[in-house]
Amino acid sequence: MTVMMMIYDDDNDDDGDDDGDDHDDDIGDDGGDNDGDDGGDDDDDDDIVSGVTAASTIKRATIIMCINNASVNQWKEQLITWTNLQPSLIKLFTSSFKDDLPNSSEACVVITTYSMVCHGGKRSSRGEMMIQAVGSREWGLMILDEVSV
Predict the structure, then answer these.
(1) Which of 49, 47, 95 is nearest to 70 (CA)?
(2) For the segment 73-91, what is each residue's pLDDT rounded down to a tens digit?
(3) How far is residue 61 CA from its own chain's centroid?
(4) Given CB 3.0 to 4.6 Å as the disulfide criterion, which of 6, 22, 94, 103 pairs with 144?
(5) Measured between alpha carbons, how far is 42 from 123 in angstroms, rounded to an integer?
(6) DSSP string of 15-46?
(7) CA 107 from chain center: how many Å?
(8) CA distances to 8, 67, 107, 111 from 70, in Å
(9) Per-residue pLDDT at 144 exceeds 60
(10) Cβ proximity of 113 and 19 under 8 Å
(11) Quick check: pTM over 0.85?
(12) How many CB atoms lie within 10 A of CB 24?
């Protein structure tokens, strides 16, 4: 059984906050979150923390799909910071990194981009090996980050 968790900007305005307009309120104000910081809506951080908590709790293979390499790196940093997962069990599958996956009986977290998984063209031999490994693994949790983009 695979559990899916979708993280998305639910106001459909592409600015990352939850007020429904198209301009980023995180610049120059407190974002209305009353948390005493210098600005920004904490919903995106809360979503990542929820995903990090889920990934570290289920003790099953987890795949996190991101929109770009910056998001991949952010997820990796947050997993290392907020969990007791061994960094060696956090694997990247991007254009720059194609980490080997452990055998299928071992839980790990794979962080990748939609474009790496959905690419329909020719792949390098290393990329083809990775996509085969990703496709053949049973995933306990799939996190779809910024799924509405």
Answers:
(1) 95
(2) 999 999 999 888 899 999 9
(3) 14
(4) 6
(5) 38
(6) SSSSSSSSS-TTSSS-TT--SSSSS--THHHH
(7) 17
(8) 16, 8, 24, 11
(9) yes
(10) no
(11) no
(12) 17
